[in-house]
Amino acid sequence: MLGSAQAIARAPYENGYLSAATGGPLRPGGLDLTARLVNLCELPVGANILDVGCGTGGTIEDLHKKGILHAFGVDRSELLLQTGKYLRPTLPLTCGSSRSLPVASEIMDVVMAECSLSVFSDLEATLQEFWRVLRPGGKLALSDIYARNPGGLPALQVLPLSCGLRTSLTQANLEELLKQCGFEIRVWEDHSQTLKYMAGQIILTHGSMNEYWSKSEPVADPLDIQIAIGKARLGYFILVAGKV
Q: Which residues are CB-neighbours of 229 under 8 A, at least 6 positions away?
């Protein structure tokens, strides 16, 4: 019974079922897509980078190995941060909320959020906070899922927030929200093939998507999740936006 209670209490990014399939990174594309996103940012020398939703710090570790030493991580999950500090004790990882970052205003050159925007409950407040900590002309670097069929959004919006699908937007919705929060999109790329690849990893590990969802999100009907994903025709993107 204890195991069941823990499964219900923990979101998919904490319960281990996703990382068991991907081998570590809790997002499509892994560090290869991170490298693409960072290259698109055209970092200045000595850039300050904040990774919001850093998890166990895999991206921060990779950036430091590449000589990008002023990279810092923030995550709200104490469990993931504890794991990260155990595995990577020298990395600057801090617990904090996306809506109230423990960072001074206008000191970051880049704010990253890799497949974490979709689990935040208040996207507008989060984006306004990202705008606050970025320097004038700073860049926002996002990767996440999006709905390619607007008609599928209602089916996603009744799912549990913890499954990371409920706040999915269309490209047009996200562009408008970013504009309202003071950002201008410079680059948008579709990388939906990485989502399909990750689904294949999950199936190989857990037997089927239904089996994965039944274990990872036990408070929801896995069939409802699968139907919602299909209706929305979920895809995956990366984008770089400038603070204006």
A: 156, 165
Amino acid at 68: I
- The count of structural domains within the chain is 1
The pLDDT tens digits for 10-45 are: 566 777 888 898 887 889 999 999 999 999 999 999
Residue 30 maps to which CATH number? 3.40.50.150
95-99 contacts at long range (C-beta below 8 A, 24 or more positions apart):
98/52, 98/53, 98/74, 98/126, 98/129, 98/130, 99/125, 99/126, 99/129
38, 90, 113, 221, 241 from 161: Cα distances, Å: 28, 32, 17, 14, 25
Domain that holds residue 17: 2-243
pTM for the model stands at: 0.91
The answer to whether residues 29 and 71 touch, using CB atoms and an 8 Å cutoff, is: no
Residue 24 to residues 55, 61, 183, Cα–Cα distance (Å): 10, 13, 31
- Rounded to 10°, the helix 123-133/171-180 angle is 50
22, 198 contact by CB (below 8 A): yes
pLDDT digits (tens, 9 = 90+) for 168-204: 999 999 999 999 999 999 999 999 999 999 999 999 9
For the segment 210-222, what is each residue's pLDDT rounded down to a tens digit?
A: 999 998 888 889 9
Helix (H, G, I), strand (E, B) or coil at 74: strand
To which residue do tokens 């423990």 refer? 102
Three-state SS at 60? helix
Tokens coding 28: 């499509």
**Nearest C-alpha neighbor of 38 from the set 56, 4, 63, 17:** 63
